[in-house]
Amino acid sequence: MYLTLPPEWGTIQGMRFLLSRTDALGDLLVSLPVMERIRSRLPEAEVHWLVQPDTAPVLAGLEGVAGVHLRAGDTDLVELMGKWSFDAVLNLGHRDGAVISAARAARVPVRVARSRGRQIWQATHVLWKGRYGSGRHEAVNALDFLRPWGFQGGIPVLPELSVSEAELEQGRQDLSADGDGRPALGVVLRGSGSGAYPSPAWWIRALAVLERDGWRPLVLSPGEDGPLSPVGLRGLMGRLAACRTVLGPSTGPVHLASALGVPVVCLMGRRVHHGPDRWTPLGRRVQVVQYPAPEADLGGGMDRLDPAGILPHLARFR
To answer: 120-127: which pairs have CB atoms within 8 A and are 24 or more residues apart?
Structure first.
């Protein structure tokens, strides 16, 4: 049942949404279920995204995306929102308070934000529920932004990303440059958004263990730490899609692999804010490995994990 909105909010079925997710890659990926929920309830609605230039390629060719707008330093948000006459702006990247300020200046009828700074007074709908310590996945927290329409809650549905045949073939060629028949294991060493990740010394030990177990581990991210030539985000997607499995901490490229349907073994910490309940990659084939207790430290804690303990999880995807 749809929520009846005031007449000045436009026709609900034909609404034009702007979903703003101007932070990191992983944040964008766990927010994609918001678009899926809108499309499932309002098939005639238009869904646009406001994202950073470096994350925008993820949305290329994704079904349901009516427009992608870049949040660059010279972006005039008020002009953008006025030009497109959005009916609703959802500031999913809630730290970017300028989005709601611009939406108000552009007279966007529905402005949804978290209770943060000036957004409290500039939004038409404010989410007061805290995310920390709630035990809820970040994708469910993102669905809270649909509360004005009564669409929040439930199980997040992630649209499965895809790459073109050309991108996949290039990824296969990149991975097979030094191939020897062993299954390719894409490795993500670390990321700016991960709550915990192993040290370089731990990875040296782990890569040797993986080699002895018959895998061909290839460091795909960060690109400067791996053996392959640098590529953009679509190139990385092609390489991830060509892997048998991807291993790494909960960070953007690992979430991206899972969204592509690639099996993932995700190394995670134990802090509530960074743990599996909140930040496990969405997808159907995800194995989570947590470092041993105690939970106090983020860096050294992951190094307590025995690399051999990862092998049974990888074996499921061999």
So the answer is: 123/91, 124/148
